[in-house]
């Protein structure tokens, strides 16, 4: 299996706008010390125990320990709150179990999703190697059961994908049932309202100008008629005498 570059660790736990928000970024493996930079089931459960608000988890992880991943999956699946997992970068390997444990899974544009068979290191005699092989086969069956429940895909299809170490685009993850939707770019309502207001103001100004021009034109047409109705001015007596008029 090609080596996947690890994602830097990031963890936040906060309540905002009536929702409980968790950011999980980095490798999934058991934490032995409080300052260990990894994600494990205890970190997640300590953050979400007793939470009754809707939960949003922002996830970016290339995976790690399958057992920790499955434990997180079952914890999320059995939590009483509505849980949304939003993939912000990559959800690969054990991180896909976190996605599967959510009530709603959202892929951001450009994100990726990857599934593969369980892997391990082994040493010893052939009996030891057989034990490791048996364990890996059992783990693969467990993984397939998680994906089947989430996606509705057949065991055969999932097995083929896992053997292939299959990568999915955000759209493919949705199409095959691993996620519910691809997040669309949010529209700025304020900007839309401002544009409508500008249009209405421009229309009002144009109508006002049109009305003013129409009134001016009407007045200019009526003036000649007004002149026709005017009585000719009387010539003064002095002017008549100058011109010899009687």
Description:
The chain has 246 residues and is of the alpha/beta class. 47% of the residues lie in helices and 19% in strands. The protein is built from eight helices and eight strands, in the order ββαβαβαββααβαβαα. It has helices spanning 41-48, 66-77, 95-100, 126-151, 155-164, 170-175, 189-229, 237-242, and strands spanning 10-16, 19-25, 54-61, 83-92, 104-107, 112-115, 166-169, 181-182. Strands 1, 2, 3, 4, 5, 6, 7 and 8 form an eight-stranded mixed sheet that branches. Strand 2, helix 1 and strand 3 form a beta-alpha-beta unit. Helix 1 runs parallel beside helix 2. The radius of gyration is 38 Å and the shape is elongated. The N and C termini lie far apart (127 Å).
Helix coverage percent: 40-55%
What distance lies between the first and last C-alpha atoms, to the nearest angstrom? 127 Å
- Measured by DSSP, the beta-strand proportion falls in 15-25%
Main sheet record: 8 strands, mixed
Shape annotation? elongated
Structural class: alpha/beta
What's the Cα radius of gyration? 38 Å
> What is the typical, i.e. mean, pLDDT?
86
Number of strands: 8
> How would you spell out the order of helices and strands?
EEHEHEHEEHHEHEHH
Spell out the blueprint of helices and strands.
Layout: E1 10-16, E2 19-25, H1 41-48, E3 54-61, H2 66-77, E4 83-92, H3 95-100, E5 104-107, E6 112-115, H4 126-151, H5 155-164, E7 166-169, H6 170-175, E8 181-182, H7 189-229, H8 237-242
Parallel strand pairs: 2-3, 3-4, 4-5, 4-6, 5-8
Antiparallel strand pairs: 1-2, 6-7
Helix pairs in contact: 1-2
């Amino acid at each position: 299996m090609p080596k996947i570059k690890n994602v830097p660790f990031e963890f936040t736990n906060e309540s905002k706008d009536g929702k409980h928000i968790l950011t999980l970024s980095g490798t999934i493996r058991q934490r032995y010390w409080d300052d260990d930079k990894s994600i494990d089931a205890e970190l997640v459960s300590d953050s979400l125990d007793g939470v009754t608000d809707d939960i949003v988890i922002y996830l970016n992880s290339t995976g790690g320990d399958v057992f920790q991943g499955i434990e997180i999956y079952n914890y999320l699946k059995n939590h009483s709150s509505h849980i949304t997992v939003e993939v912000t970068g990559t959800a690969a390997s054990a991180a896909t179990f976190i996605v599967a444990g959510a009530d709603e899974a959202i892929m951001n544009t450009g994100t990726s999703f990857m599934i593969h068979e369980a892997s391990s290191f082994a040493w010893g005699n052939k009996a030891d190697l057989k034990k490791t092989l048996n364990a890996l086969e059992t783990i693969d069956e467990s993984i397939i059961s998680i994906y089947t429940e989430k996606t509705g895909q057949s065991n055969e299809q999932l097995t083929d994908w896992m053997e292939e170490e299959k990568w999915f685009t955000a759209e493919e993850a949705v199409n095959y049932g691993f996620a519910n939707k691809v997040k669309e770019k949010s529209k700025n309502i304020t900007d839309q309202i401002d544009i409508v207001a500008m249009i209405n103001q421009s229309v009002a100004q144009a109508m006002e100008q049109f009305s003013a021009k129409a009134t001016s034109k009407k007045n200019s047409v009526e003036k000649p008629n007004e002149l026709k109705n005017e009585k000719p001015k009387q010539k003064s007596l002095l002017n008549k005498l100058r011109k010899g008029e009687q």
